[in-house]
Amino acid sequence: MNSEFLNGPCQVLPASEETSSDINQCVKLRIPKDGTAVETMEPMSVPGLINNTVKNYPDHIAYVYKDTEGKSVKVTYKQYLQNVRTCAKAFLALGLERRHGVCILGFNSPEWIISNLAAIFAGGVSSGIYITNNPEACCHCASTVKANIIVVEDDNQCQKITSIRHQLPDLKKIVQYRGEPKDPDVMSWKQLMDIGEQQNDDDLERCLKEIAINQCCSIVFTSGTVGNPKAAMLSHDNLVYDSRASFERLDVSMGEEVLVSYLPLSHVAAQMVDIYFVITAAATIYFADNDALKGTLIQTLQEARPTLFLGVPRVWEKIQEKILYVSSQSGILKKSIANWARYQALKYNFDKMNGKPSKSWGYSVASTIILEKVKQILGLDRCKLVVTAAAPLSPEVKKFFMSLDILLMDSFGMSECGGHCISTPDAFNLEASGRSIPGTKVKIMHQEDGQGELCLYGRHVFMGYLNEPEKTRAILEDDGWLHTGDIGKVDDSGLIYITGRLKELLITAGGENIPPVPIEQMIQAELPNISYAILIGDKKKFLSLLIALKAEVNQDTSIPTDVLMPNVQDWLKSLGCPAKTIKEVLDGGPDAKLLNTIQSAIDKVNAKVTSNAQRIQKFRILPADFSIATGELGPTLKIKRGTILSKYKDIVDSMYS
Question: Domain limits at 515?
Answer without folding.
Answer: 505-656
